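User: I'm new to structure prediction. If I give you an amino acid sequence, what do you actually give back? Let's try with this one:
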Amino acid sequence: MSEPQWQKQGAALSHKNACKEFGFTEDEVKAAMKAGKLQYLINYAHGNPYYKLLRLEVESLALELHGAKGIKDQELKYKLQQITQEINSYKRKLASLERQKIELIKIQTLLNT
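Assistant: Good question. You get back a string of structure tokens that encode the predicted 3D arrangement of the chain. For your 113 residues, that looks like this:
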């Protein structure tokens, strides 16, 4: 395990994110870790442990388990999910701003009367 690999921006990801991004189950990831196919470090966030994995190794495992077409399909699903979440976030923000606008208009009309 060379330290620079783990330190590069975007070179590592958590086992939870690997499951989401590449369509693995946690059991598949843990089995690959036990088989030595994935190097990992144990980190803690707010006292909760998680495994940090190298992205290149996760990508090669995904290619091995799902094939190139499966990787592309999962990548598209993941990107679509992210875009949908972002759209929903903007909808919530827009609704909040609309409510604020209505309140300000009410206050303005009260001041002008």
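You can read the tokens as a compact description of the fold. Here is one thing that stands out. Residues 3-112 form one domain.
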